[in-house]
């Protein structure tokens, strides 16, 4: 007979491992991405997207408009933060 408690315990442990792996992958992606779109840059800076869009349009945040979309360099954003 199968011990369902053990099965659930194993499944919970595996789910926890998968969640941890997902968190690690997300952190790794955050480190390796150099050029970001507005949503990625807002997440990186922990800004609301509307706020970042407004600051970008005002020329207060380093960015380039490419094909109608804003692009942000992670290294330039880090420099900008250090200057602020």
Automatic annotation (TrEMBL):
Residues 36-83 form the Helix-turn-helix domain. InterPro entries: DNA-bd_dom_put_sf, HTH_17, SinI_DNA-bd. GO terms for molecular function: DNA binding. Pfam families: HTH_17 (PF12728). NCBIfam families: excise (TIGR01764). This is Helix-turn-helix domain-containing protein. It comes from marine sediment metagenome. The lineage of its organism: unclassified sequences, metagenomes, ecological metagenomes.
């Amino acid at each position: 007979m199968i011990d369902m408690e053990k099965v659930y315990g194993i499944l919970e442990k595996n789910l926890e491992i998968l969640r941890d792996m997902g968190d690690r992958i997300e952190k790794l992606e955050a480190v390796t991405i150099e050029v970001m779109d507005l949503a990625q840059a807002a997440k990186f800076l922990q800004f609301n997207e509307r706020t970042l869009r407004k600051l970008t349009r005002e020329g207060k945040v380093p960015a380039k408009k490419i094909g109608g979309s804003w692009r942000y360099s992670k290294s330039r954003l880090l420099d900008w933060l250090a200057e602020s």
